[in-house]
Specification:
disordered N terminus; nine-stranded antiparallel beta sheet; about 30% strand
Length: about 575
């Protein structure tokens, strides 16, 4: 079930070769637990200065047929696909067929003009457009009901407002890259997959890489996508909507290592060096602040070395592509359901291979140093966002939109979570604003580079029956093309959103009179984090609701008057 060049036995000398062999043996030990015949697995490849160091596959590609993963198994790389889409756009710019500062509507005229300042293609490339994503819009109204490609573009064209003004924030968006794939097709006159094969995969010698828009497509050599079933065992991962642009690529270890060698190499077979550099160049917002994300890749320090990377996840698959350019180190990890984080595994590989070249691990802030924050929740009236603080194994953790708290980083007077912690944007607090003796009434959080004022929510939570008496009733949302009903069912306050092709049910938990958390009743969606709901009132009467997820803001649900 595993195929790889076995690392040599560690030498007792201190030569670089012996050190490398010992590191590879340790990497092998990290991968070994997933070398099973009853579970999905992973494929990993490592190269150093273009020399293959490690290439191994473990676990099963098909649990049904008993077929093991091999180093040539194709796997979904999910959002690691994004910088390929960006490179396709940049090639068309080099051809003179578009400009990255074109308004999106120049190429997709069916989209409404929701801002005087774009959004432009550059905004889509850097996740600064503010456009809501088709995938989250679909899930909000339909849950995991599967759809064939088609509804994505109309859903985005239906939006009446943006998450934020273009260029002011960075909030990760699959929908932005979905629009870029549509633009590539319109401008080139080719299907997205055909353009990538002609202009990128063919010239770079990547025969096993392709764009596969839906999990219904049968692809030779592609590993099955698996998720733990609620009652034990496994179930198939099936992404409910189209993936083009944001997460549609399938690839192999060998193809991805070829791509990485070209990405960092001085000689370019396709595209200009300038275009390739733009993929990981930091983005400057209108405020002048910068974020570490470029055109599909993030670049930032890790323990004293600069890393360039992008992770990905769909239902049943995860990936991480990571490079340390100064040390010529390239890593690709692709997972088809094994219980392992490819991002964590890739960083462990960096630590094992670079060793003394790295600075000591960072010290995370202790929860005991911020006792007044633990258990507190804060709400931003301008965006609907909610943050909370918790003790995470003795470290100070922060949650975003009521999802699980992540241990914060600390340095230079700041507390923060980065893209490596939450797949949305950078969240940064000024530690000097926090009084260890008293929980502050307000906090200023820099979200994706933009300051936002958060107000502390009261610790006394209202009774759910009292909340239900005010909120129960019928609602409608033009942006979701859906209706909704709030009802108290067996003591649980449920919001049922009914789309044209399915429904999504969430349980509400009040954290104040006007702010609620929502948890999907779907066992898969519930693992992906929570959302928040804020109440709109006029003269004390509830007139509507605003729905906020990790990547979508201010979806309006208008209350329908009862005519009883």
């Amino acid at each position: 079930m595993s195929q790889h060049p076995s690392p040599s036995a560690p030498d007792t000398s201190s030569s670089p070769q012996a050190s490398e062999a010992a590191a590879l043996a340790a990497i092998d030990a990290l991968v070994a637990p997933f070398n099973r015949s009853d579970a999905p697995g992973l494929v990993m490849g490592i190269a150093r200065h273009g020399r293959l160091l490690y290439r191994r596959a473990v676990g099963m590609a098909s649990l049904e047929m008993g077929v093991a993963n091999t180093p040539t198994t194709r796997m979904r790389i999910a959002s690691t696909s994004k910088h390929f889409t960006a490179m396709a756009v940049l090639l068309l710019a080099e051809d003179g067929l578009l400009d990255v500062d074109d308004a999106v509507q120049k190429h997709l005229p069916e989209l409404p003009q929701l801002s005087a300042n774009g959004p432009t293609l550059r905004h889509l490339l850097t996740h600064t457009s503010g456009w809501r994503g088709h995938d989250e819009l679909w899930a909000l109204a339909h849950g995991l009901t599967f759809t064939r490609p088609g509804p994505g573009l109309p859903a985005m064209a239906r939006q009446s407002e943006l998450n934020f003004a273009p260029g002011t924030h960075m909030v990760y968006s699959n929908g932005g890259y979905f629009l870029l794939a549509k633009i590539v097709e319109r401008v080139s006159g080719q299907r997205f997959d055909d353009f990538l094969k002609t202009r990128l995969f063919g010239p770079l010698g990547m025969p096993d890489t392709a764009s596969v828009a839906t999990d219904l497509d049968v692809v030779p050599g592609l590993a099955g996508l698996y998720m733990p079933a609620p009652g034990g065992g496994w179930q198939r991962g099936l992404y409910p909507c189209e993936l083009d642009g944001g997460g549609s690529l399938v690839s192999t270890v060998d193809d991805m290592l070829r791509w990485l060698a070209h990405l960092h190499g001085s000689q370019k077979t396709v595209g200009s060096a300038k275009s390739w550099a733009l993929l990981s160049a930091p983005t400057t917002l209108l405020s002048g602040s910068t974020v570490s994300y470029g055109f599909g890749l993030a670049r930032h320090p890790y323990r004293g070395v600069e890393i360039v990377h992008h992770a990905g996840a769909v239902l049943g698959a995860q990936s991480q592509m990571l490079s340390v350019p100064a040390h010529g180190l390239d890593i690709i990890v692709m997972v088809n359901g094994a219980a392992v984080s490819p991002s964590t595994l890739a960083l462990k590989v960096v630590e094992l291979l670079l060793g003394d070249a790295l600075q000591p691990p960072e010290v995370r802030p202790l929860a005991s140093a911020f006792p007044t924050l633990i258990g507190q929740n804060y709400h931003a009236p301008s965006t609907g966002s909610v943050i909370g603080f918790a003790d995470v194994a003795g470290k100070l953790g922060m949650s975003w939109q009521a999802s699980g708290a992540k241990p914060l980083h600390q340095g230079e007077g700041k507390l923060w979570l980065g893209l490596q912690d939450l797949p949305i944007n950078d969240l940064v607090l000024d530690a000097s604003d926090i009084d260890p003796q008293r929980a502050p009434d307000t906090l200023v959080l820099h979200e994706g580079g933009q300051p936002c004022r958060f107000e502390r929510l009261p610790e006394n939570v209202p009774d759910i029956a009292a909340v239900a008496a005010q909120l129960c009733g019928d609602y409608t949302s033009a942006d979701l093309d859906a209706t909704a009903r709030m009802a108290l069912v067996d003591g649980a306050l449920l919001l049922t959103v009914q789309g044209r092709h399915g429904q999504h049910v969430c349980a509400l938990t009040p954290i104040s009179a006007d702010v609620m958390t929502l948890t999907s009743t779907d066992p898969v969606l519930s693992q992906m984090g929570q959302s928040t709901l804020t109440v709109e009132r006029k003269q004390g009467r509830v007139t509507g609701l605003r729905l906020h997820t990790l990547r979508t803001r201010n979806i309006h649900l208008a209350r329908q008057e009862s005519h009883a």
